[in-house]
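S1.2 Input.
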Amino acid sequence: MSGRLRRSHRARYCAGLPHDRETLGRRIRLQMHPRAAFKPVPENSTKRPKPKPKSKPKPNLTGAEGLRARTPGHRDSKAAGWLYAARPRDCQPPGNSNSTQRDCLGASTSRSTPAAPRQDGSTRPCRTAPEACNSVKDQDERAPKPPDYKQHKMGAEDYSPPSTDIITLTRHVLTEGFKRREESAASGDLTILLSSLQTTCKFIESNVRKASLINLIGAAGNTNVQGEDQKKLDVLSNEIMINALRASGKTAVLVSEEDDEAIFVGEKEEGGTFESTKGKYCVVFDPLDGSSNIDAGVNIGTIFGIYLVKDGSKGTLEDVLRPGREMVAAGYCMYGSSANLVLTTGNGVNGYTLDNQIGEFILTHPNIRLPNRGKIYSINEGNSMYYHEPVLKYLDSIKFPKGEGAKPYSARYIGSMVADVHRTLLYGGIFGYPDDKKSKSGKLRMLYEAFPMALLTEQAGGLATTGTERILDIQPTSIHQRCPVFLGSKEDVQDLEVTLDVRPARNTTGSSNRRPTGI
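S1.3 Output.
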C-alpha cells in the first residue's frame, strides 16, 4: 500500500469512520484504477452497480464550521464517499498501541498512552494544536468578534473631533488689522491688498497643478530683463499678479521680475486708461520663483514685498527704491505637495496651508521661529570653483568640523529659493547664494527676492546678511539690483560672519559700518 493510501486510511481511522477490509479494498482500487472501483459483474447477472450519487452543493457555513469546510482536504462525505478531515499526517488514532508516533505538536509519544480528554468530553486526539482541541461551539466563542460599539464609550483619548474653529488667512489678517487700527488708526487697505494677493496665489496654484494637462510647460520663446528664458507659467503668473493687484484699487506702483520697468497704476497707455484707482501701497514681486524647475515638478513659488507710499507722494520710483526694513509686509506662497503661504506684517511670521475643499488658506504654522542653530546648509556647491576663499573656508568648517563629538552639517539644495528658505525657516540651518568670480554682485535680486526673505527670516528670529552687511539696511539703486544672500539661524549666520572676518557687532536700525571682506 502506498504512503498516500496509508495516510488516507490512517485519517479515516482517526475520524472513527468505517474501515473494514471490503470498503478499504474498494477504496484502494478506486485510488489505483478509478474505473475498477466496483467489481466486474457477469453478463448473465441481474445486479448492476449502483450509480454514484450526485454531489450536493456545499452548505454556506459560518464560524468554525465554515472555516473547517473551507480547509483544504476537508470534503463532504456524501459527495466523495468518505470524510477526509484536515489533520496532520501523523495524527495519533484512538486506542492502545505499542508503537511510538509523533503527536500533533511533533513530540514523540506512545500509542499506549491514553488520549487526554477534550473540553467537549471526548477522548479524540487533537488535530492540530492544543488550543484547537475544542468543540465547534468553543471555537466560535474564541473567534474574534467585532467591537460592540453600543457598550464601548469613546473617551477623549479614543476620539478627537476635527476643529470647527478654523483660522483663515483673511480672519487672521483682519484680527491683526484691528490691533494696528487701535494703535495707529490704520485703515483696512492692507487687509484688502493681502486678500487680493491670496486670490492670485490660489489662481497661480491652480494653473501650476494642471500645467502639464493644459500645455503650460515649456518655454514661452521670450527672455526677460535678466536674460533668462521665460516659461509659459512665468508669463501667465505675471499677468495674473498684475491684473489682480491693479483691480484691488490699493496699489500705486508694481515692480515685477518679468518686466523691465516699474508699472505705475492709473497711467495712460495705448488703447485707453486703466479702470483702477491709485492706492497707497507699492508691491514688488517675483511671480514665479524657480521657473527653471517648473517642467520637473519641483517646488516653486511666488515672492512679494509691500511698501507704503511716502507721505505726500502719488506713487513714484522713489517709493520703491527703499531699504528692506521699511517694508510693511512680506511673504511667499510655495506650490508643492500643498500650497503654503508664509506671511509677516511686522509682528512675527505665520504659515497658512490652502484647503482646496473650502478654498481658503488655513493657519497651520502660527508664530514660526527659527532655532538658534540648525544642522542643514543649503548652498549650490556646483559653483564652488568660482567661490571666494572665505566662503570655501566656511563650507569646510561645517562639512569637516573639528572637536570631539562634532557632526557635519547635511546638504540640502533644491534650486528654488522659496523651497530652500521654507525648509530653513522650519528646520533651521543656513541658506546662501554668495557672490563669486562669475557673478560679482550675486545672483538673487535684492528688491523682490532678498528683501522679503530677509524680513521673514529676521521676524522669525534669524539673521540675514550679504556677508558684509545686513541685507535690510541696503539702499537699492535700481529695481533689478542683485546682491549676495546668507540667511538662517542666528548662530549659523554669526559663525559665517566670524569666518568671513566680519565685525560681530550688528546694527539693526541703521546702515552697517562693517568693513567689507572682498567676497
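S1.4 Remarks. The chain has three domains: 3-41+58-137, 169-365, 376-499.
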